[in-house]
Amino acid sequence: MEFFKGLIYKELKLTKNWFVVGIALLILGVVAGLGLTKYFNEPNIFAVVAVTILVGHGFYLPAYLLHSLNIEAQTQLWLHNPNSGAILFLAKLTAGFILYVVSFFIAFVIAIWGLTHAVNGESLFNLTGEPVLNITLIGLGITLGTLFLGVWVLFYWSLFHSLKKVPFLHSIRWPIVIGTWILLTAIGNYVNNLPIYQKLKNIGIIKLDAYSIEFLVGKSSASAGFVDNAELSIMNGAIYTILVIIVFSASVWLLERKVEV
User: Fold this and answer.
1) Are 107 and 54 in contact (CB under 8 A)?
2) What are the average pLDDT values for consecutive 10-residue runs of the chain, which has 261 residues?
3) Which stretches are transmembrane (predicted)?
């Protein structure tokens, strides 16, 4: 277990600049939101900026992994690492998730404050549903989404670098990766539309309260639904969990047998 902690520590040390830049951008976004709110005297603006920052964290882990893996490809630090591919990837996921949680927590608190301020203030901003509860559910969805995308990043990165060992495919690696993504996306859409899959998704349904944001300007209005009659499917979650395990295993296989890093 000590070697795993060591790998995580190495990852955190390797990507500390990434984390600092991310926090700096978050603070910059908050300052910009506060500035616009004060300038236009509308608390709605900061609330929208805060929620946008929160939702943007869905891409945090994929971006982190791309940055970290790019460093590995340049330095070839893995070349002399005796640990298995699964351990190496898990260390990166764990380190990235730790940084994600810290950044996400800050964004979460800011979003809650921004929304509550907009609700309690005299503004043109209306919330339907319980802000804290629904933002928490949104946060859970974002967290699961960033983990899901992160595992796919591991797969496509491993696939891209595995093609180095095939001379006649070396120059067309990007088209192959893009083509693979298109093919897998098409297969996923096809499976998702199958009647049997639709029936499976309806097993273990948990319904969520509707939650939306509405902007009123004169007689005109616009709304954005974050949780609009949404449903969570336990069976669908189980299917996606199996898919993540398969994709992760494929990534490890490519790394250990095909990737030269």
Assistant:
1) yes
2) 82 89 93 87 82 91 92 71 83 94 92 72 45 71 91 93 80 90 93 85 66 46 48 76 93 80 50
3) 18-39, 45-66, 87-115, 135-160, 172-191, 237-255
